[in-house]
Amino acid sequence: MNIANYRYRALIGTGGIGSGMFFALDGDHTLGREESRSGHFLDRRDYCKLHIVSHYVRRLLGAGFPVIPIGMVGEDEVGERLLAEMMEVGLDIRYVGRAEGRGTLFALCLIYPDGSGGNVTENDSACAVVDAGWIAQAEAEFARFSGAGIALALPEVPLDARRELLALGTTHGFLRVAAFTTAEILELGGELKDVDLLALNLDEAAALTGVSTEGSDPEAIVRAALARFAPGVVLTVTAGARGSWCWDGIALTHLPVLPVPVVGTAGAGDAHLAGIIAGLAAGLPLVEAHQLGVLTAAVAVTSPHTINFELDREALAACAEAAAFPLADAVRALLRMKGERSERVTDQLR
User: Fold this and answer.
1) 3-class SS at 70?
2) 279 phi and psi, to 5 degrees?
3) Is residue 143 part of a domain?
4) What is the pLDDT of the chain when averaged over all its residues?
5) What is the CATH number of the domain that holds 165?
6) What is the pLDDT confidence band of residue 211, given thresholds at 50, 70 and 90?
7) This prediction's pTM
């Protein structure tokens, strides 16, 4: 599909840019407050939300679609490496600064034997100094794509910075997409300003509604979350192995996860959102962009790292073929690519 036919012409976003490590815990019981627990580090590379989503959108939409992350890394080797990787994929990093005296954001991801887990993230990294003033420096980019851009606000930078980005999106007629942590969801409640599309996971939806995920029907949690938001906000909810939902303002649609060899699930929700954003940018309605989100997450989890550097439209097309995943005609048209890599990727996904 030619970039000239896309509904939106650029993505401008803010959120976390950083790295992390994975630690596999011994024992499935929840880590106690004063407990010492053995385990081992895994050979996996972790990336933060803005980097993950930006990378995949760029890979899926190609060189003609500008992706402009706004954020900070530290004055350290990790920051240099991340900037080099972002440049290599073609991200416009003019608004990614180097924070003096701060380290690049780092997270430690804890994984239990059953595959569940969480992470601890430092709160005084370079990302912590991203403020409304830093975001405002990019206003000329919003003006350049007025009426034809997507504004993306993701966690791991302060809320004030994200509010400024969404406000600029409102001023310049952008589609406004946001995600929040569970704590932020509880703080915000159902009051969302300057958000068109809200991306949640099931735990965040449950926290918002006060319903426990244990023993509850996940779709009931999703429907309860819908009732908390003003009309006009559309919603996506991911629920791991239980699939994902999208609400386009008219109907609630569920799609299952695809049968692929799962290597690592960290970052799957970010990949899902990236696929949806790419689909919306290309002009797909949300229900069809949801299909692209499911495919992107499916290919993402076949890599041990939170960015699968093999992921592109051809890999998604091969995944859909291998899983016999029925696609809308417009999704097929977006994924239609030629090349010799298709058979190799298809074999990997079986």
Assistant:
1) strand
2) -65, -45
3) yes
4) 89
5) 3.40.1190.20
6) confident
7) 0.91
